Amino acid sequence: MERFAIVNGLLSTVDGGWSAWSDWTDCTLTCGANSTKTHTRTCTEPEPSNGGKECEGNDMETASCAWVLCPGNTAYSIVK
C-alpha cells in the first residue's frame, strides 16, 4: 500500500520507516562452535514514497549462538 501525505494541498514526501524485527532464525549448527543466527526487518512502515528517504541502518543482524557440546565429544568441536 502506497502512503503519502498532503500538506497545504501538495503531495509531500514520505520517509521510510523500519518494520519490527523478525524472529531469530535457528542456529546454523546444532552443536559445536561458530554457529550464528539472524533476524531481519524491512523498510515498509511506511515504505518511502514521493522521493522520501530510505531507511537508515541495517536490515539484518547476526548474533553468535551458545556453544553446545556435540554428542560423543569431550571437547567443543565444529560439526562437519
Describe the protein's architecture and organization.
The structure is a single chain. This protein has 80 residues and is mainly β. It has a single domain, classed as TSP-1 type 1 repeat, CATH 2.20.100. Helix content is 0%, strand content 20%. It has no helices and 4 strands. The strands form 2 sheets. Strands 1-2 form a two-stranded antiparallel sheet. The chain starts with a strand and ends in a 16-residue tail after the last strand. The mean pLDDT is 85.
Name some characteristics of this structure.
rod-shaped; two-stranded antiparallel ribbon; 0% helix; TSP-1 type 1 repeat; single chain; mainly beta; 80 residues
Summarize the SSE layout with pairings.
Elements: E1 5-7, E2 10-12, E3 36-40, E4 60-64
Antiparallel strand pairs: 1-2, 3-4
* Strand segment tally: 4
How is the biggest beta sheet arranged?
Answer: 2 strands, antiparallel
Helicity level: under 10%
Rg for CA atoms:
21 Å
CATH topology: TSP-1 type 1 repeat
| Total domain units | 1
Looking at the overall shape, the CATH architecture is: Single Sheet
Shape: rod-shaped
The CATH superfamily title: Thrombospondin type-1 (TSP1) repeat
| Total helical segments | 0
Structural class: mainly beta
For the record, what CATH class applies? Mainly Beta
Secondary-structure element order, N to C: EEEE
- Global mean pLDDT: 85
Gist of the model:
The chain has 80 residues and is mostly beta strands. It is built from no helices and four strands.
